[in-house]
Amino acid sequence: MQTPIRYQRKPHIVPPCKADYLCIYEDEHMVVVNKPAGLLSQPGKHKFNQDSLLTRLKDSYATPYLVHRLDLDTSGVMVVALTKEAAAKLGRLFERREVEKHYIALVDGLVEQDHGVIELPLTVDWPKRPMQKVCFESGKPSKTEYKVLQRDIENNRSRVQLLPHTGRTHQLRLHMASIGHAIIGCDMYAGDRVCYAGERLFLHAERISVTHPSSQLTVSFEAPALF
């Protein structure tokens, strides 16, 4: 039986991440990696939060450019540009929402509908930042499509595929929590439900499809979830 702990804000200093990224693909224009959970995408403002995917990539590549990010606690596929030209082209694709991303998550409870779409206006919750909130007055549109892959009746959990059509901060966490199925291991939006000591956030960017900055062909990269 795991020890339950109540919701608490994460410490300002990020614990060291022993796991390293795995290279999935690389050429002269870009590199695609599988980022581990617990590793920042880019250095933080605090002097002790300088370890990150970008920092580690600089040990192997002269000029890596982040064109998108994953949350600290989220693992999975990330595309990183290796030239300014590639960074500009890839950055525009993400800005225009012309990149297809598939996530895998384990969520609390048994999701009733096999498939659904969540659309809510999201904005920063300033007193609790970096947390976000639903706000119909000032929130920006957000949309997530979900599909149930498996229902674990014994553990009261569901395995879902998530397809975000927008890229708001904490969108997937907040969207799933809004329908009563918080992502397991999320200590931000689980409400009165408990998360468990030692559990990671069960959210993984499994697949990404993007137009290659040089060939202009659609290329897809995948890293299966380890949970």
Question: Can you give keywords for this protein?
Answer:
single chain; about 230 residues; mainly beta; Pseudouridine synthase; 2 domains; ten-stranded mixed β-sheet; two-stranded antiparallel sheet; 14 strands; about 35% strand
Topology:
Blueprint: E1 4-5, E2 22-26, E3 30-35, H1 53-57, E4 65-66, E5 75-81, H2 84-95, E6 100-108, E7 115-119, E8 122-124, E9 132-134, E10 143-152, E11 157-164, H3 171-178, E12 195-196, E13 203-211, E14 218-222
Describe the fold and architecture.
The protein is mainly beta. It folds into two domains: 85 residues, Pseudouridine synthase (2-Layer Sandwich); 114 residues, Pseudouridine synthase. Strands 2, 3, 4, 5, 6, 7, 10, 11, 13 and 14 form a ten-stranded mixed β-sheet that branches. Strands 1-12 form a two-stranded antiparallel ribbon. Strand 4 and strand 5 form a beta hairpin. The longest helix is centred in the middle third of the chain and has 12 residues. About 3% of the residues have low confidence.
Number of domains: 2
CATH class of the largest domain: Alpha Beta
Task: Indicate the multimeric state.
Answer: single chain
Q: What can be said about the biggest beta sheet?
A: 10 strands, mixed
Q: Might you state the CATH topology name of the largest domain?
A: Pseudouridine synthase
Helix count, DSSP H or I runs of 4 or more residues: 3
CA gyration radius, whole angstroms: 18 Å
Which class best fits the helix and strand makeup? Answer: mainly beta
> What share of the residues lie within helices?
10-25%
General form: globular
Query: How would you spell out the order of helices and strands?
Result: EEEHEEHEEEEEEHEEE
- Estimate the mean pLDDT confidence: 92
CATH superfamily of the largest domain: Pseudouridine synthase
**N-end to C-end Cα span:** 19 Å
* CATH architect. name of the largest domain: 2-Layer Sandwich
